[in-house]
Amino acid sequence: TTAIDYVNSVPHLGTAYEKIGADALARFQRLEGREVHFQMGNDEHSTNVLKAAREKGMDPKAYCDEMRGKFTEIWKKLGISYDDFIQTSEPRHHKATQKLFDAILKTGDIYEDLYEGWYCESCEAFYTEKDLVEGLCPHHKTKPKWLSEKNFFFKLSKYQQPLLDHIAAHPEFIVPEIRRNEIVSLIKGGLQNVSVSRSGFEWGIPLPNDAGHVVYVWFDALINYLTAVGYADDPARFEKWWPADLHVIGKDITRFHCVIWPAMLMSAGLPLPKTVFGHGFVYLKGEKMSKSLGNVVTPLDVADVYGPDALRYYLLRGSSFGADGNFTWEDFIKRYNADLANDLGNVLNRSMGMAKKYFNGLLKPGEAAEADKPLILKAGETGKKVRQAMDYLQGDIQCHLALEAIWELIGAVDKYIDSSAPWTLKKEGKEARLAQVLYNVFNCLRLIGMWVAPFMPFTGEKIYAQLRLPFPKTFAEGAPWTAMPAEHQLGEAAPLFPRIETEAK
């Protein structure tokens, strides 16, 4: 799962970073032969969403449905392969939220009391005086409102020790380690009971025990993970998919997902998700992108011009998923030209050209040589490195290392071509040796197309189309060196990543 998103405006690059990283992992797991349920969605019951709808003169539900279309269009363009896209305004989510609220209510963990505190509308969260920075929200740099109202509260403090015990027994529950340490420190500092309702609101899910209150937006948002796997209406489906193997969320909402959410589940007697992964932020020239701060680059600003895979590659190659990344147009264009146009694009293009020139695109094994062995060994090592990098239970999701390993193989293919010198072999009439060199090159390109596909799905498809090969259903099917047909006619060449000649923005 990923976090669900507010719909008061369209996604920015930081939002896309989360979805792209989670999608790469979902695609990777499918190619490992696992059955995957990958869910995303929109978080709709916020005051910001209501405000945005009113500004457009729209009913909030109609506004949310319109925004769903805009979000899903962006995710489709970026190749995000979710299996379910949930809206918190859907009837199935109302049903699941009320069911979980009622389950927690029956344990005695919900009670009514007066709440007073500073409230940030952008965060949809209350803050104490000490949380504020010079009187402003620490995240949005805006002045919060002072609110005082009767609310229902959840006894979060009751779960302080059970949470610490769970994290100690299951360190894989929170990764990377830095996020785990932050959460343990926060819990040890003492947990306060939290408000789970708002009064005087119509836009929200009514409490099952008091129609004058709606469920607080963060409480209802967390429950989406249960809704989409049938908690309220499909017991067999729920049994199959819950608990979640992995929640992928931003590091700024770990408190909700690693403290409040597991406590809610403990109270309701439900299993906890196995792992919560807190990813880093994408900064724009060193500053966090935020809709409220107005410093946003949208995913389509990049993808519509340079292609979705160029954006996916840039975001995933820059750093580990658990660390912060940075986006600048200058660096994007530099990496695009160096890695995509010059390295991957060039090695495929020159290889297709030689195969067409020397054998009219027909590949077949010829005369092997000792000089082939390092390349074949490198090809085998690449798969091992990719798998190791994507094992999030090691403490991080390291797409950058997986891509680095793939690009090392691309570099090795390029060097192999230069050292084997097909043009010289042709000149000297060594046809059998020339055939084997090109066969080895295209076997590596086949593997490169397969291993790169979770990260750059459109590129994987394009490589296989040029090779005129069916894409393997699993890594196990495609990874063996012997999976290459003994005799094979290539398809037509086409440029993957045309070089960018324009100046950086």
Structural features:
3-stranded parallel β-sheet; elongated; alpha/beta; 13% strand; 505 residues; 4-stranded antiparallel β-sheet; Isoleucyl-tRNA Synthetase, Domain 1
Helix and strand arrangement:
Elements: E1 5-6, H1 13-31, E2 39-43, H2 47-55, H3 60-77, E3 84-87, H4 91-106, E4 110-120, E5 125-127, E6 145-154, H5 160-169, E7 174-175, H6 177-188, E8 194-195, E9 197-199, E10 213-215, H7 217-222, H8 224-227, H9 235-241, E11 247-250, H10 254-268, E12 276-279, E13 282-284, E14 287-288, H11 299-306, H12 308-317, E15 325-327, H13 329-359, E16 362-363, H14 373-389, H15 399-420, H16 422-427, H17 431-452, H18 457-467, H19 475-478, E17 488-489
Parallel strand pairs: 1-2, 2-3, 7-12, 11-12, 13-15
Antiparallel strand pairs: 4-5, 4-6, 6-8, 9-10, 13-14, 16-17
What do you see in this structure?
This protein is α/β, with parallel strands linked by helices and 505 residues long. It has a domain of 150 residues: Orthogonal Bundle (Isoleucyl-tRNA Synthetase, Domain 1), CATH 1.10.730.10. The protein is built from 19 helices and 17 strands. The strands form 6 sheets. A 4-stranded antiparallel beta sheet has the order 5-4-6-8. Strand 1, helix 1 and strand 2 form a beta-alpha-beta unit. The chain is elongated and about 90 Å long.
What's the name of the CATH homologous superfamily of the domain at 340-489? Answer: Isoleucyl-tRNA Synthetase, Domain 1
Radius of gyration, CA atoms, in whole angstroms: 26 Å
Termini gap? 34 Å
- Low confidence ranges: none
